[in-house]
Specification:
Blueprint lengths: L20 E5 L3 H12 L3 E5 L3 H8 L5 E3 L3 H5 L4 E4 L4 H11 L8 E4 L4 H14 L3 E4 L2 E2 L2 H6 L2 E6 L2 H14 E8 L3 H30 L3 H9 L6 H11 L9 H14 L4 H18 L14
Parallel strand pairs: 1-2, 1-4, 2-3, 4-5, 5-6, 8-9
Antiparallel strand pairs: 7-8
Length: 300
Amino acid sequence: MVRGRDGRASQGSPAMSETTTVAVLGAGALGAAMATRLGGTGHEVRLWNRTPDKARAAAEHAAGVTAVAALADAVAGASAVITVLRDGEAVSAVMAEALPRLAEGAVWVQASTVGPQSAAALAGLARDHGAAYLDAPVSGSTAPARQGKLVWLVAGRADVLTRARPVLDALGSSVLHLGTGVEGSAVKLAVNAWMAASTVAMSDVLALCDALGVDHATFVRVLEAGPLAMPYEVQKVGAMDDAAYAPGFAVQLALKDLDLASAAAPPSPLLRTVRDRLRTTAAAGHADDDLAAVDYLRNT
């Protein structure tokens, strides 16, 4: 890594080429989907996970994706390093080891949902190592990631964002530059709170439909005929009716994000109710299931 007069690595590198080497750190549902999409669009992807078997399983049938057991081997020479890990503590531990090994000009794209406080600490960690950093969580889960339709919520220097665009564009339909601090992580908590609240609301309204004798298909048709349709929640109706809770965004992750939001600001009565519903759902054995599982009580 080339360092300037202040001992820090230079961030004045040119933009990445349209296809490049990307290290994806974290082979959970979202990380694996990101790796698959990047490999399919011509990038050379190194997928690493703290449990190596998980990375190997995700990479087995993914073109352009190689599972790498050693963290140092994953990040060495990579133009972009994307962290998609559970929480700020995990990201900090992994990147404390990885940052000294980043290549000259590499961009760290911090895509984990960690909340503003942890995001600020991670930005400080990047500065301490002279690394280019983007606070860049996403709106969207596994299916949009595979389709390249994520929405990036990015905070960071404009020149660093420009350099990372080939990778971000391969994964997302939109890249929103929200500021230069931790605005991405702040907005992500608000977005996920809305997602969780609207999913609980849809379940409760379906219960109301049942009580009123309103067919769910009729209810959806009326929504779609006017301005009240929300595609994400309309899709959830089918999952709820079929009790099909294959993970897209897991209940335990939504609960973790609401806990982060509660740490940042006192929760409203509504968000307290939503958080209680998620806790009840997780305690009933649905922690790893999709958020649609908040509807399990209606189907029992």
